[in-house]
Write a structure and sequence with these properties.
The protein is 46% helix and 7% strand. It is built from 12 helices and 5 strands. It has a 5-stranded parallel sheet, sandwiched between helices. α6 packs parallel to α10. The termini are far apart.
């Protein structure tokens, strides 16, 4: 070989050595795994996989093990079985009647409902009475409390006598507070107040119903049912507007409590007819009406999400 060739040979060897050292240094600094792609890494190589986090327990239990009910005459089954009498066996919330299939029966079964459901509703009750009813209900430590109240706050002798919305809201907040102080994890189902104007439009088709209404049933809405003058229409719209305000209050207070579910206005929006009304007063739900209320409640309570 000539002298140039002898010089280049050793240079190439040194270059390869330098490149090897640099490559090893770079790989080491970058923390790269030097194990070949087709070979398993040595024991302990790389980071250990973190254990999967446990699934969070849902805040809302769709199958509570006990039910208490609070509210007014709708929940006592008033006038559903006989005139001027409560009929708790057909209550939408806790009744035992097979014709109704109440919320408690749907959730607990007939025997479970008989043992683990309680009804503290009182005919004629208004929202101001709800904190006291709730105080009695919590003594049973129910997992779910079903609430339906507000119709009597709107059904007064005159529109000016209806419960102010601020008072209605405060009383409902008081009732929820009573529950929370005693049972922080109890769930609450809240039914919207029914559409009383639809009640007028349906019931007024019955001459018997109109005669019964004259005895003083919800005069703010049902008084002088055949009157269609401006004053009568304004009176009925005032009542309907107040009911809608009550429902907004129920929804807003319930939304502030993670264990409370409002029915989304389902009871208010339900298009009931005379078949769902009591045949004695054309005001309270009859047996079929109670069954429809039970359906709405069960659907809301058992929904995966509100």
């Amino acid at each position: 070989m000539d002298q140039g060739t002898r010089w280049r040979g050793p240079g190439r060897g040194r270059s390869r050595a330098v490149l090897a050292v640099v490559a090893a240094t770079v790989l080491g600094a970058a923390g790269c795994d030097a194990v070949g792609g087709g070979r398993a890494a040595p024991s302990g190589a790389g980071e250990k996989k973190a254990a999967p986090a446990p699934s969070p327990t849902p805040v809302w239990d769709t199958s509570p093990a006990s039910v208490a009910a609070v509210g007014d005459s709708i929940t006592t089954g008033f006038d559903a079985c006989s005139v001027l009498a409560d009929c708790p066996e057909v209550s939408w919330a806790t009744g035992s009647s097979e014709k109704v299939d109440s919320l408690a029966v749907r959730l607990l079964g007939p025997s479970g409902a008989a043992e683990r459901s309680w009804n503290y509703a009182v005919t004629g009750a208004r929202m101001a009475d709800l904190p006291g009813q709730m105080a009695r209900a919590v003594t049973r430590a129910p997992e779910l409390v079903a609430v339906m109240a507000g119709a009597n706050d709107a059904c007064r002798a005159t529109t000016s006598a209806m419960t102010p919305v601020a008072d209605f809201r405060a009383d409902f907040e008081d009732a929820i507070g009573t529950l929370r102080r005693a049972l922080p994890k109890a769930q609450v189902y809240v039914a919207s107040v029914p559409d009383l104007k639809r009640l007028w439009s349906q019931g007024r088709t019955s001459e018997t119903g109109k005669q019964v209404w004259k005895l003083g049933i919800c005069p703010s809405m049902l008084g002088d049912p055949d009157a269609l003058d401006a004053a009568a229409n304004e009176r009925r719209e005032t009542v309907r507007g107040r009911v809608e305000e009550y429902n907004r209050a129920l929804e807003e207070v319930c939304a502030a409590d993670e264990r409370c579910r409002y029915d989304g206005g389902a009871v208010y929006a339900y298009r009931f007819g005379t078949a769902q009304l009591s045949r004695w007063d054309w005001f309270h739900p009859g047996v079929d009406g109670q069954a429809r209320l039970a359906e709405i409640a069960h659907r809301t309570v058992t929904a995966a999400k509100p």
